[in-house]
């Protein structure tokens, strides 16, 4: 009989248990969002490794080049940020108001990439075109290989 009572008790407390799980997972998500950037949103990115450079392709729909900052912190961290402000649409006049706003405004986004040691941080270029930000990071030439010198044994 006690097994049936325990099972009923677990079923009746299920919503409470579910709520505890949801709260604990939301705390975990908040921490993960903090690590990813403001609001938990990031720029989707593709990174291409070529023989002479690294090329970062980031989707930034609705953002212009003036909305985006590309910087290098601590000599090896590439940081890409947006300010996330909605601009007034053309044709919007005084006395007019939106009846419905369904398109999401650009969010404050931050994305950080740790650059490899062979990057030339002073030779980074970026361009924003058609909703795609392209950041090119040049590679340093490989260090010269150590020469081996044969020493004669007397």
TrEMBL record:
Main subcellular location: cytoplasm
Family: Belongs to the small heat shock protein (HSP20) family.
GO cellular component: cytoplasm
Species annotation: Perilla frutescens var. hirtella (Perilla citriodora)
Annotated compartments: Cytoplasm
Matching SUPFAM superfamilies: HSP20-like chaperones
The entry's keywords: Cytoplasm, Stress response
SHSP domain sequence ranges: 36-154
Subunit structure: May form oligomeric structures.
Coiled-coil residue windows: none
Protein name: HSP20-like chaperones superfamily protein
Any Pfam family matching the protein: HSP20
Lineage: Eukaryota, Viridiplantae, Streptophyta, Embryophyta, Tracheophyta
InterPro entries named in the record: A-crystallin/Hsp20_dom, HSP20-like_chaperone, Small_HSP
Superkingdom field: Eukaryota
């Amino acid at each position: 009989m006690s097994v049936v009572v325990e099972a009923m008790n677990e079923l009746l407390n299920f919503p409470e248990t579910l709520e505890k799980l949801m709260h604990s997972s939301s705390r975990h998500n908040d921490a993960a969002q903090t690590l990813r950037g403001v609001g938990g949103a990031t720029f989707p990115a593709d990174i291409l490794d070529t023989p002479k450079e690294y090329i970062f392709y980031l989707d930034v729909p609705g953002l212009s080049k003036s909305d985006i900052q590309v910087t290098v912190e601590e000599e090896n961290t590439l940081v890409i940020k947006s300010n996330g402000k909605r601009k007034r649409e053309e044709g919007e006049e005084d006395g007019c108001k939106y009846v419905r706003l369904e398109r999401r405004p650009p969010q404050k986004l931050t994305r950080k990439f740790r650059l490899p040691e062979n990057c030339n941080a002073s030779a980074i270029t970026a361009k924003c075109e058609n909703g795609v930000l392209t950041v090119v990071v040049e590679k340093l030439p490989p260090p010269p290989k150590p020469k081996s010198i044969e020493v004669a044994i007397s």
